[in-house]
Specification:
It contains 22 helices and 15 strands. By secondary structure, the protein is of the alpha+beta class. The protein starts with a strand and ends with a helix. The chain folds into three domains: about 1-150, PAS domain (Beta-Lactamase); about 165-335, 2-Layer Sandwich (Alpha-Beta Plaits), CATH 3.30.70; about 360-545, Hypothetical protein af1432 (Orthogonal Bundle), CATH 1.10.3210. GO terms for molecular function: catalytic activity.
Length: about 550
Amino acid sequence: MVSRKIKNGILKNNSQINGDYNFELDSSLFNAILDSISDILIVINPKDYSIIAANRGYRRKEGLLTKDIRGKKCYEITHHKNSPCLPPKDKCPMLETLKTRRVARAEHVHYDKNGNTYYSEIITHPIFDKNGTIKAVVHLSRDITDIKRRQEETKKTMQRLQALALRDPHTGLYNYRYLMDRLSTEIEFSSRHSLSLSLIIIDIDYFKSINDAYGHAAGDRVLVEFSSFLKALLRRTDILTRYGGEEFVVIMPQTNKRDALSIANRLIAQINKQIFKVASSFIKIKVSIGIADFSVSNNLVTTKAIFDAADKALQRAKDAGGNRAAVFSELYRGKKAKTVSDDYKEDVDVLKRKISKLGQRVDQAVLESMYAFSKSLEARDYYTAEHADRMISIAVALGKKLGLSKQSLNNLEKSAVLHDIGKIGISDVILRKKGKLSPEEYKIIKTHPQIGAEIIRAVHFLKDVVPIVLHHHERLDGLGYPSGLKNGEIPLSARIIAIADAYQALTSDRPYRKAYSKKKALEILQKEAGLHFDKKIVDALIEIEKRKK
């Protein structure tokens, strides 16, 4: 056996027995140096993979004494294997060192004293004798389990962030970035294989009014519910994305404009039937849809061109009143560019008519939207919704009887529809209470005229309706609310709505009592005339009701 001593970092050859090698490490200094190294270190005989020496770090990690380690194979202890590591499956840095005669690095899975795996970063150093032969390999390793774990966590985090970068965090749908990349890919694919491709843009009509009436939290929830509802209606091949705000875009591969229009109309029909329940509110929405398709003839062959075309179609659908779908190619086919007219007066008149017509459409659409909100009270307070419908004819009849102008009658009709819209802000517990309201509950219910006025105040064409809604619970004796106005201080239309409101309330079933007969209701109003109600208006109501008999 060959006995070798390590001196000055070089192995010295002393003797040879049976051709085997034994390394006699008799230097206490050398052992002290090994133990001072914080990393895990062993010295391996490259001939048979046996461990010649091991430092304290290795002994502690494996839970073994020096006598238990020396002579054991490195793969037996560190890898729990019965045979050496074999490339290419196993990347053994010692084999690399023996091959290249240089330092090698690798990452391995090792086992500790409890049989638990841990990740190791390994560096192997060759030890040469004076003849340049590798007589030993220093195997230095470091436990990098925590580092690997952090790397995995970082990797997963990056993957999540990458996924989030393509997803809208609110609805979970693909976002604008994904939309543009995917649309470009689909256009290229459709062009290469001569396939059809359509794009539809879906916009929720008058979504701002939902936020105004129900609050932004409810509006956000509607968007989430709408996203899920829309996704369920679409085909598996359709790619639904959120473009931004209340706009959604659907890429429809292998779909021509005719089929896209058919799908769009089906979506509109289903959306019109759907009621979105958010907390205690029941909300209905309408949408407008613009459609464009990949078309060489219309020069719709780029992402921007198709998207702009669908956006123009959407605008045309909204200009037509909303709640409908429009196709770009059908809207613009055959139309020639307009030339500037020499008759500027005619151009001005045409523009005025267009603006007037557009204004009327917007006014009507906003009014319908607000009326829909007042109708949404039906699920919470059935009396309120039915009451609003029946009040209109009474209020308008009273207005005509009192000689109100056409504009005043128009405002009166709007007020009859919207006078209780502020109850949207009142709790169901109070609205549906069967017993008498407590002072605190009555105080809350008295806020609904102010809430209603605030809701409609932002709509310019309803400016004359605001004081009617605000003051329809005032009394002639000044004991009403919210402002305590008296007599002529109360707008005439508000006095009319107050009587129509009271009359319908008296003749309707309520949670806390049965309806009065019309005769009894009129007697109650007559008794309150001059104190609570305007006597002239009460007398007009009595005359109107007598004529119905």
